[in-house]
Design the sequence.
């Protein structure tokens, strides 16, 4: 069986979406004749933990580890709350304290490409021995953090091997990049590193067509789109909420603030007593203070239920029991190619998806193809209101459902098949 070394920062017990992509690939690689070998940090700083992911690790999986020095541990002495928020990707855009502005400047300008950069050189030295010992000639790096790609870059430069770089998110065009208070020199360094990685890797994997088109402007190397997906059965729940729950699963960052949705919900609450009595806004995961302030501005604070972070298994249960699932992306041209991993689990839950995102958002095509919901931009009020009202009327009749057609192509096992064909 052919061996492949997978180099990733996020691995169980890490929680959140970043860990799931390669955990699921590794889970199914052996089914297609590939034996994965893992390389992960020995002492990582994970903002979120989820022990339930441990059950998906294949038996007898060989895992190599090496320690990593992370500045987040030092910064946490100054402010553990702000440090955890920044390392989770939650960047407040308003009312930033001097400390938070300072931490952001340091993060963006001194730790390039990111705060895990100190793991690169020790890993390159360590992995040369591992590759020789295991007889491995193919490696896969996955980012963010994009410093992981630099491990592949330096290994490729020093020894003969095949390197595949997997980008779960873009690099210099990702939403939070512009919030890092980068100097022109730092911005140039980021772009140069991105260019170097894209033009040194043998093959590239991305999660969206938009990112593929973006990278094709920078390199002639082969690029394959392999999206994220869902694992498990496609099945509707027999235990739907009795209230008209409109739920968001996962972190809701400051930039993802669909004010038109809050306005429409406020209007419906004020105009329709049945809607008012039935509606509930449920948030599973971290919600930024700016989002909560906007919801309160529209008088919806009494309809909020904040559950907080839960295990992945619990999140799946909430998805299946909710009446409507919210999917939100930042309103920016830079985010039209961002396809949240939760989209595919939403589809498998067979509940209507209500999306608000940038105009020409790539997610809209997937939603239309699978007939799993509706997508709106941030300026859309009337159509959004009509859809919500129609869904509420179907809810009242006990008929709120969707078809979830043709979504098997997004199962984790099928996506692993595509991965093996590519590598």
Sequence:
């Amino acid at each position: 069986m052919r061996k492949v070394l997978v180099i990733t920062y996020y691995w169980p017990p890490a929680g959140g979406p970043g860990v799931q992509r390669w955990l699921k690939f590794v889970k199914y690689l052996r089914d297609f004749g590939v034996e994965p070998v893992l390389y992960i940090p020995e002492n990582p700083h994970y903002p979120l933990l989820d022990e339930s992911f441990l059950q998906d690790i294949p038996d007898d999986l060989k895992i190599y580890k090496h320690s990593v020095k992370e500045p987040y541990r030092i910064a946490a002495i100054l402010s553990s709350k702000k440090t955890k928020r920044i390392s989770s990707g939650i960047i407040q855009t308003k009312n930033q304290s001097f400390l938070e502005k300072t931490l952001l400047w340091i993060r963006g300008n001194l730790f390039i490409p990111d705060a895990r950069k100190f793991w690169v050189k020790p890993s390159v030295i360590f992995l040369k021995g591992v590759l020789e010992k295991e007889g491995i000639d193919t490696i896969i790096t996955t980012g963010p953090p994009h410093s992981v790609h630099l491990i592949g870059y330096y290994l490729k430069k020093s020894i003969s091997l095949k390197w595949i770089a997997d980008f779960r998110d873009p690099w210099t065009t990702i939403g939070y990049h512009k919030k890092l208070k980068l100097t022109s020199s730092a911005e140039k360094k980021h772009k140069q590193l991105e260019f170097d990685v894209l033009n040194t890797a043998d093959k590239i994997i991305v999660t969206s067509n938009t990112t593929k088109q973006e990278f094709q402007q920078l390199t002639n190397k082969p690029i394959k789109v392999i999206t994220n997906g869902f694992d498990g059965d496609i099945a509707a729940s027999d235990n739907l909420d009795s209230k008209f729950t409109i739920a968001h699963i996962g972190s809701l960052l400051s930039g993802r603030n669909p004010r038109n949705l809050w306005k429409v919900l406020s209007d419906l609450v004020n105009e329709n007593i049945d809607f008012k009595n039935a509606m509930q806004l449920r948030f599973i995961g971290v919600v930024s203070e700016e989002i909560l302030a906007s919801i309160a501005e529209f008088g919806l604070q009494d309809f909020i239920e904040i559950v907080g972070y839960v295990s992945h298994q619990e999140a799946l249960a909430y998805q299946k029991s909710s009446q409507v699932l919210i999917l939100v992306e930042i309103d920016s041209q830079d985010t039209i190619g961002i396809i949240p991993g939760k989209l595919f689990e939403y589809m498998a839950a067979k509940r209507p998806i209500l999306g608000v995102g940038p105009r020409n958002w790539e997610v809209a095509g997937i939603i239309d193809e699978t007939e799993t919901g509706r997508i709106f931009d941030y300026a859309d009020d009337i159509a959004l209101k009509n859809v919500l009202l129609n869904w509420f009327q179907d809810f009242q009749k006990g008929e709120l459902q969707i078809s979830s057609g043709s979504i098997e192509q997004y199962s984790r096992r099928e996506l692993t098949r595509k991965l093996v064909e590519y590598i």
